[in-house]
Amino acid sequence: MLRIINRATDDEERWILCGQLVGPWVAELRSNWGEVRDPSRGRRCVIDLSDVTLIDERGERLLGDLRDEGAEFVARGVYTKHLVETLRSQDEWPFRICQMDTTIRIK
After folding, report:
1. What single-letter DSSP state applies at residue 76?
2. CA distance 89 to 92
3. pLDDT digit string (tens) for 11-21?
4. What are the C-alpha distances in Å from 55 to residues 10, 41, 102?
5. 21-38: per-residue pLDDT in tens?
């Protein structure tokens, strides 16, 4: 199961994900991204992965697609940090990571 919480400010749209980004929940995030994201407003799009416990291959591909569409990511925890580092090392994932305490911000 995946819970998606949307928050918006004047300069940022944020997707806070809680649970597992697997199976049908990957399509749910893709749908929510398409409904909520408004590129014409010029706000940063941040996907907070801090409370994600599992990401399958489809979820990884979606995160890559969203990154290509301008998403930035926040990751915390051993699993998600490892995933981010793994993805960062792949040629198709040119992440810039800034370490801040136990949080990794990927832009």
Report:
1. E
2. 9
3. 999 999 999 99
4. 30, 29, 19
5. 999 999 999 999 999 998
CB-count burial class (<10 Å; 0-12, 13-18, 19+) for 47:
buried
The CATH classification number of 2-106 equals 3.30.750.24
Angle between helices 78-89 and 57-68 (to 10 degrees): 60
Confirm if 6 and 32 have CB atoms less than 8 A apart. Answer: yes
Residues 20 and 51 sit within 8 Å (Cβ to Cβ): no
Domain boundaries, the chain: 2-106
Q: Which two tokens stand for residue 30?
A: 């893709």
